[in-house]
Amino acid sequence: MRIKLNHNLEQLEISGIRLFNSQTTAYDDVIKLTIGEPKFATPEPIKDALKASLDKNRTFYPSFAGSDTLKKEIIAYEKRINQVDYAMDEILITQGATGAIFAALGSILNPGDEVILFQPTYVAYQPAVEFYHGKPVFVDTTPNQFQLDYEAIKKAITPKTKAMIVNSPNNPTGVIYNEDSLNIIKRVLDEHDLFVISDDVYAQLVYDNATFLNQDSDYKDKIILTQSLSKPYAMTGWRIGYLCAHKDIIKSAHKVQQYAAAGIPLFIQDAAEVALNTNVDSMKVFYKQNRDDVVKLLQEHHVPFVYPQGAFYIFINISAKGLDSWTFATQLLHEKHVAVIPGVVFSQHSDHYIRISLAASNQECIEGVTRLIHFLQGQA
Amino acid sequence: MRIKLNHNLEQLEISGIRLFNSQTTAYDDVIKLTIGEPKFATPEPIKDALKASLDKNRTFYPSFAGSDTLKKEIIAYEKRINQVDYAMDEILITQGATGAIFAALGSILNPGDEVILFQPTYVAYQPAVEFYHGKPVFVDTTPNQFQLDYEAIKKAITPKTKAMIVNSPNNPTGVIYNEDSLNIIKRVLDEHDLFVISDDVYAQLVYDNATFLNQDSDYKDKIILTQSLSKPYAMTGWRIGYLCAHKDIIKSAHKVQQYAAAGIPLFIQDAAEVALNTNVDSMKVFYKQNRDDVVKLLQEHHVPFVYPQGAFYIFINISAKGLDSWTFATQLLHEKHVAVIPGVVFSQHSDHYIRISLAASNQECIEGVTRLIHFLQGQA
User: Fold this and answer.
1) ipTM field
2) pLDDT (average), residues A318-324
3) How many domains does chain A have?
């Protein structure tokens, strides 16, 4: 039998990050600065909340949209952190930000619709757009220090443009969009009938003052906020996040959630309520220390990089070595036993960068980056 | 701003079951025989396994495909129960059967592909097919005592037919496909290049001997098995199930899983391993008792019904009352405070039936059906 499958899916590739990461098991002593996952286990109070929920036998069908009590906590949280008022029918509980982006794109895209992605870009946006037979349209931010450029966006907009995906703090660069970038987005929203999907999964991991798009209520109905509990609360494996948007979008996204998953376990939702009220400053202090130590090391050795104001990544310029980023990362792995992500994975325009994750231990960050500097500068 | 959303989703309706069920809150004393959810909480050993997994800090990213240890348990389970050998790359862990069907359809459907659904049909198949721009083609089983008819299927097949969805034991009828029906499916598979999605979520809730399609290894590569831990282990809220299929289908379904959810929590997968080895005969005895008691009651009062050999539903013929099923169920709710699902929800051909769930308590089943019989036979 000839297996005739979904052509569209056949063309979607497994993420380059996972592909490269699978090579890193070649040696026992590899320092892995690849995956953006906190090294911390989930804090005890959150685990305890799940256990208590199980003891209350919260093992029955959840509603598709999410529990009312968690939605109320999210409303309180968004009000407290971002000073935005959401109503109960403007929230959907999802499988992490992955599920939120999947439901957000599903709620708005018709086949052929275009979605603007800013390069370098998080690797999961493009296949999610293509899953819905949408067309990703790339706008390179490299020439503009990874901030946004009005003219470049205007050139990318067509009558088919349905949305832009904005990710600040950014993966892979750690850049936070400045006032100019935010004003550019607002100007584009004033001039065009389109949505912004604001992927704010790193918004709690910010090391200096910063402003975010969704804090401006004037644009609330054009913004689809996707959020996750994964990074700030060390809950990557829990697969819980949420979507905040206009109620018509939530109604549509709700159907995606209904057909794809039929809801999130209640005991996970109950624990998420506790998470949103857990103080996680100590983790932020840890990442900031890693950032500061690595920044200092790179500066001391005159290695160019993008200064990260948020998230837990540093995007390091490797032009000095004269290798493309995949070759660079491969040689670094084999010669120095340090694993990093090649910049080409995020854009063909960032093939002279590699991304390291600062979510490893401080010792691993310092030792890994020291070896990387030696490799970059041709030392044994 | 005019909200321009996904047209395709806009046309997909929220399930008639949920719609009707939302009416049942009108009275405090309603006997609910609507939703197909076990009344039992999840057994303690399964809850304990989740807690132990949390204590081991299994809170990090899962792989998209599922944990190797759970996949091994599934292989052992399918071998033990169905005598079929699956390889590790023929299994994908999903969000219940909902996620399994979503991934299965996603893995094979191109826009315009047709999927044969047997009516009366579980309500979630049609929107899931339409989600992928597929076309459901209905084959009515009412004239054939809810078994399959070769000529009817042949008439429905076109060059665009990609799959049939088979659900045995069946929701809503409780019917198990007999040897003739299984042979018809095999003959169709011999004659046509198409898949069977075999939704076996009730296969453990069988009250007499029965044979299933996936037990014939000769057809293994044409069968996509979707399974859930929800019903047999009282784990509806855990959202865990799995898909067994040819490795190329799994590879494609894996991408759906990657973009839609990014995997299932490890602590849930760990608990699922324990579930697959938990004896749940006592629950089966409970449902069988409900079935036997309700069957006896209906027979005593000469009410026609479909004899259910599996699952926990009875499909009752309400022709005697001369009302359509929605009106019947609505009046029954208001006059007798008993909630049932109108048969029209499952097919326009079963508008002279209502479905009751046997997952309620024995007392509720008996009292609810007694009131239903009074209503049907015009007694006060």
Assistant:
1) 0.92
2) 94
3) 2
The predicted pLDDT at position A304 comes to 97
pLDDT value at B121 more than 80: yes
Nearest CB among B58, B131, B260 relative to A99 is that of B260
Q: Which residues contact A356 (CB under 8 A, 6 or more apart)?
A: A33, A294, A313, A314, A316, A340, A341, A365, A368, A369, A372
Residue B51 in domain = no
As given in the structure block, the two tokens for residue B104 are 């299965």
Containing structural domain, residue A257: 60-275
* Token pair in block for residue B133: 């721009």
The pLDDT assigned to A202 comes to 92
* Chain B residues near residue A4 by CB distance under 8 angstroms: 108, 162, 193
Q: Are residues B131 and B212 in the same domain?
A: yes
In this model, does residue A39 exceed pLDDT 90?
Answer: no
The DSSP symbol for A307 reads: P
What's the pTM?
0.93
Contact B177/B203 with Cβ under 8 angstroms?
no
pLDDT at B289: 96
Per-residue pLDDT tens over the stretch A175-224: 999 999 999 999 999 999 999 999 999 998 998 878 888 888 889 999 99
Nearest CA in chain B to A249: B5
Q: What is the DSSP letter of A108?
A: H
| A24 domain-assigned | yes
Same-domain check for residues A237 and A298: no
A302/A168 same-domain check: no
Q: Who contacts B83 (Cβ-Cβ below 8 Å, separation ≥6)?
A: B215, B217
The answer to the question of residue B1 being in a domain is no
**What's the mean per-residue pLDDT of chain A?**
92
B108 to chain A: closest CA residue? A5
| Contact call for residues B215 and B84 (beta carbons, < 8 A) | yes
Same domain, B253 and B154: yes
Cis omega before residue B159 (within 30°)?
A: no
Which residue of B42, B58, B60 to mutate against A (max A Cβ within 10 Å)? B60
pLDDT at A2 over 60: no
CATH number of the domain within which A300 lies: 3.90.1150.10
Q: Which residue of chain A is at minimal alpha-carbon distance from B249?
A: A5
Domain for residue A48, yes or no?
no
What is the structure's pLDDT at B103? 96
Q: Are residues A137 and A267 in the same domain?
A: yes
Confidence (pLDDT) at A212: 83
| CB-CB under 8 Å, B7 with A99 | no
Query: How far apart are alpha carbons B169 and B296 in whole angstroms?
Result: 21
For chain A, helix, strand, coil in percent to 5 are 45, 15, 40
Rounded to whole angstroms, how far apart are CA atoms A260 and A240?
Answer: 14
Categorize the per-residue pLDDT at B89 as very low, low, confident or very high, splitting at 50, 70 and 90: very high
The two structure tokens encoding residue B266: 């490890």
Instruction: Answer with the one of B275, B301, B333 that is the final residue of a domain.
Output: B275
User: Has residue B14 got a pLDDT over 60?
Assistant: no
Which of A47, A51, A98 is nearest residue B261 as measured by Cβ atoms? Answer: A98
